[in-house]
Amino acid sequence: MSKNTDELFKNVIAHAKEYGFVFQSSEIYDGLSAVYDYGQNGAELKNNIKAYWWKSMVQLNDNIVGIDSAIFMHPKIWKASGHVDGFSDPMIDNKDSKKRYRADQLLEDRIAKYDKDGKTDKAEQLQLELDKALNADDLPRLRDLIVEHEIACPISGTRNWTEVRQFNLMFSTQMGAVADDADTIYLRPETAQGIFVNYLNVQKTGRMKIPFGIAQIGKAFRNEVIARQFIIRMREFEQMEMQFFVRPGTQKEWFDKWKEARLKWHLALGTPAEKYRYHEHVKLAHYADAAYDIEFEFPFGFKEVEGIHSRTDFDLSQHQQFSGKKMQYFDPEVDPETNKPYGNYVPYVIETSIGLDRMFLLTMINAYEEEDLSTEEKQDSRTVLRLHPCLAPVKAAIFPLTKKDGLPEKAREIMDSLKLDFNMQYEEKDAIGKRYRRQDAIGTPFCITVDHQTLEDNTVTIRHRDSMEQERVPADQLEKIIGDLVSW
Ligand code: ATP
Fold first, then answer.
1. Gene3D superfamilies per the record (predicted)?
2. Which range has the worst mean pLDDT, 81-90, 170-179, 201-210, 343-352?
């Protein structure tokens, strides 16, 4: 990471805290590693991102519906899905510092360093070796690579490594009063399984016809080996997932469609296209026959934000086997080749899975700007979040010019007429210029000032965040002006 991008990232993290977007969890107790809380503005921004996703996935697609399944699920589900036996990361300890690392991440970091130093051949060679070792689950080879490439512990600086072991990422807990093995349940590591086990409930009660999708937004938990990069890798995070059920044999076509549609969703927020790229998975998860990531260029490099996976009929077939219940769908449509209905089958599934917290971070990073406003006469600057207006936590702030002469009352009256439609903020403290800066810092698209003229002719000054231009408009036009910009 160059000094500038390093600094940008640090500044965004500091800004997120200073303006009530993200706080370290349990901060007064020195924090809990890789767990974060969203503050007053963060919660609004997060809700707006969820709404954007939900509207475009569920509301705009009449063959996709949304559910909200429980975090706790029957433990057999995680056996069937393969998570109990296979949801793990390769872990290695440094014997001197007693610090624990992900073996693959140490190697990824080394590859990035080779790249940065212009040693492209070495980077490519190591990437190949790493993929090969991961594909074969060859843990001793991972350790050999760490030794061969002379990777030292970032803390102790020594190369005194243990063997590599698999570490299961699922959190477990006990349900009920009796703590024996039978009561062990897991905090879900993905929301997808809640969709799979409900797919026939939804299909039948919603009379859904293939192809159809089920979407869900919810918490997921992973006991990540190490915490890294702020809200990129958390132990408690949120996912927005959609499982799309298709006729076997059509999965490639649907995979390509969703891959494209999901990138469009990202770009529709105005993010420059060069900030995104696709990354094809070389190592496929046990359930997948194709997988692409959508990656975003964070200050520390390209990183996965969303995965599009062709999950075959793996999950539904596994649940059919483990539960003993039929997971088949009856397809009455006639196959033009055989002239008979397609009949009973276990559908194939295309999944789109996006991390809400990573989406949140990329939105903050994209929007953050330290703008130099200096003129010949004076030095000036502002920090502005150029958020898409639909995502802005506060849509409009309203300021009485002074705290007297009935201006606060008039401002409140205008605010009351708008607050049912838009999230508004009332501010009367400090000079107007300072109030503008505070709203710029949280990305508020409009600031409305009520002054003495307002009392006479019911006009107000509206100031635009991005251009900083101000115009005088009748108060009764505010709803339309704000609505035109901030509605979906
Ligand atoms: P990574 O390789 O970065 O660990 P993953 O491939 O394990 O991610 P998926 O299982 O495909 O991730 O999960 C789907 C999405 O959930 C990811 O694209 C990411 O945005 C998000 N996600 C996964 N793990 C975390 C985490 N620990 N913290 C925050 N978001 C996460």
1. 3.30.40.230, Anticodon-binding domain, Bira Bifunctional Protein, Domain 2
2. 170-179
Q: Do 446 and 423 meet the contact criterion of CB atoms below 8 Å apart?
A: no
How many whole angstroms separate alpha carbon 94 and alpha carbon 100?
6
Is the CB of 224 within 6 Å of ligand 1? yes
Mean pLDDT of 347-373: 97
Give yes or no for a contact between 345 and 320, defined as CB atoms under 8 angstroms apart.
no
Q: Which atom of ligand 1 is nearest to the CA of 224?
A: 27
Residue 109's nearest CA partner among 158, 153, 141 is 153
pLDDT digits (tens, 9 = 90+) for 23-50: 999 999 999 999 999 999 999 999 999 9
pLDDT band at 2 (very low <50, low <70, confident <90, very high): low
Overall number of domains in the chain: 2
190 is in an annotated binding site: yes
Structural tokens at position 322:
């483990």
Do 308 and 235 share a structural domain? yes
284: domain CATH number?
3.30.930.10
Report which of 295, 176, 191 is spatially closest to residue 238, judged by C-alpha positions. Answer: 191
Domain identity same for 354 and 409? no
CB-ligand 1 contact for 309 (6 Å cutoff) = no
> What's the confidence (pLDDT) of residue 232?
93
Residue 182 structural domain: 3-75+169-363
Write down the mean pLDDT value for the chain. 94
The pLDDT of residue 245 is: 98
